[in-house]
TrEMBL record:
It is an enzyme of class 3 (hydrolase). It comes from Nitratireductor pacificus pht-3B. Pfam families: Abhydrolase_1 (PF00561). Its EC number is 3.8.1.5. Residues 36-161 form the AB hydrolase-1 domain. Keywords: Hydrolase. PANTHER family: CIS-3-ALKYL-4-ALKYLOXETAN-2-ONE DECARBOXYLASE (PTHR43798:SF24), MONOACYLGLYCEROL LIPASE (PTHR43798). This is Haloalkane dehalogenase. InterPro entries: AB_hydrolase_1 (IPR000073), AB_hydrolase_fold (IPR029058), AB_hydrolase_sf (IPR050266), Epox_hydrolase-like (IPR000639).
Amino acid sequence: MIAPNPSAGPRHSFVERSLKIAGHRIHCVETGAGDPILFLHGNPTSSYVWRAVMPGVARATGRRCIALDLLGFGKSDKPDRLRHTLHLHRDIIAGVVAALGLSNIVLVAEDWGGPLGMHHLVHEPQLYRAAILMETFLWTFTFADDFHPKFRLPFRLMRGPAGYFMVQVFNLMVKKLIPEHCPITEEGIRYYMDSMPTIRSRRAMLELVRLNPLHGRPRESVRFIEEIRARLPGLRLPVTWLMPSPGVIVSEDYPPSQAKFERFKALLPGLQVKPFGPGHHFLAEENPHRVAQLVSETIREKGLAAV
């Protein structure tokens, strides 16, 4: 395992706020001033994943950096009887954008934050200026195309009845998945554990696993991805993809996933792919300095920085 990166510790001095969105309390953090950069996390992390990224980006770009905790994650509400859908999570993001009056947004997203944020972006492009994506997906999955054999059995189990015990009871997504795919301090992993301290509070993690569009199911998730892809060819704002080596979602260790990404690029002929360097999945944990560097560099290149 790679040695923990002490620069990704839990201390920060962000402004924190709670917003009431669709009847749920949504936690946000921010730093800086100016036009916004909206940071979206994935599963099983929270806005905390950006803690060592946002201050440097705010200084380098003269922009206001904002990150929210998706419903069910971090310090946001964790309803244990709610039916989770991708449209619900997208609507939470849209509600935060509206509540804060955001425009001229640069989207920065990883993992599930990618499709959730991009769904809002392609339907409300007038609110955005650019998107920067990493370790995420804007396509549906099959085991053959997307999953290295070592990931297939755990994912099958999590999608089935055993998933409740793996994700909610034993909290393996936090205790095992994060440490295996990035360096993280004990303080850092403790934050993620403490933010979802009970079996019931971990429900959103399991729901997102089961909402992953795999082999045509669930149909609602497939349609959600199709809605994004249908609008990508007409998108007129720049999209940049930070590509780590070896990576996990698009992985050098699994060539079919690279071929899938090459096919995806045909939908966005202007897509810019930037090499990240060594990295796996949780890039903002693994190398926050590099994430901040590339995000800031991209924003400057697009003429979107204020400094």
